[in-house]
Amino acid sequence: MWKKILKVCSELLIGAVVVGGAVYYYQVILASGGTAKKRAAVTPSVVAEVQKKVQFADVIEALGTGSAKEAVEITATVTAKVVEIKFEDGDRVKAGQLLVRLDDDKERAEFDQAEINLDEQEREMARIDRLSKSNAVSQKSIDEQKTKLARSKTLLAVAKTQINDRHLHAPFAGCLGMRLVSLGDLVTPGTKITTLDDISEINVDFSVPEKYFAALKTGYEISVKSPAYPDETFKGKITAISPRINLDTRMVEVRAVIDNKAMKLRPGMMFLVRVDMGSRSALMIPEKSVVSLGEKQFVFTTGSDGHVTRHEVTLGSRRGGKVEVISGINDGDSIVTEGVAKLVDGMTVNFVNPSKTGEMTK
Known about the structure:
Layout: H1 2-40, E1 45-50, E2 53-75, E3 80-85, E4 92-93, E5 98-102, H2 105-132, H3 139-164, E6 167-169, E7 174-176, E8 186-187, E9 192-209, E10 221-226, E11 229-245, E12 251-259, E13 270-286, E14 291-293, E15 296-302, E16 308-319, E17 322-327, E18 334-338, E19 350-351, H4 354-357
Parallel strand pairs: 1-19
Antiparallel strand pairs: 1-18, 2-9, 2-13, 3-5, 3-8, 4-7, 5-6, 7-9, 9-12, 10-11, 10-13, 11-12, 13-17, 14-15, 15-16, 16-17
């Protein structure tokens, strides 16, 4: 009897499993499959626009640093005490103007003695010359006196140089920096006295990508702006282009010169440099229409059959949300500008901007 009861229970259990599986299959598996198919059948909506070439102003922008036309550190070349200072911090000086005098009493005494010796040797030389006309002096005496005279001239020149070494002059006209010595200081060779900068012109050094190397030319005009004068623009010209490309940065160094007669600019200032390379016809498309896959860039063009085609493109300059297409699509092509993330090559799409896509709109 128990065997019959167990058999009936087993049959009932198996039946329940079969019915439950059938219900799950119809309600879950088939239902979800149908939903997936419906989802797969949804046509994505995109915005497409016809792209036309425009006049594009080729502009290079870079950060530059200013430097003086001429710059030097005024330093001592001898060991001596400072006995006179002839300038103040920040003075503008002329070329050759005396800045500092070091103690030169001993050197002046030596110079005076050298002048006396030279005077004596010149008088002796004149006497020997007179005697030589009457053959009253030997050639040996004449030669010895010439040697003494030459030596006296050399000693006088040395004494004069020693005095000059103790008189520090401005090598060119310019603006002095801070005074770094005081009266009575003992300076030695290399002691820094002050700095001197000729800022009548300011050099602006900046770097640009090597792709511009062939296009850049000396004489090109530049404009610069400084944070110190945010409302002013200063003009200059390119004067030098480095013949070398930096191997690490792939950049080329450029120098421009800006007239600074107003004395507003200073060495060390940072500048935003703008080089106008002229205008040209270029195909500019919205940056948001570009899809990047690895190191490659793609855009989708649209056809009259409602399909999209993926094209690999080479890009150029960027400005204001637009990017230049150098190759990959043509002037007059219609490309997808919105909704590109969900597209694949050959997909059918629905255009939502009929005013811009014309006959392509569905």
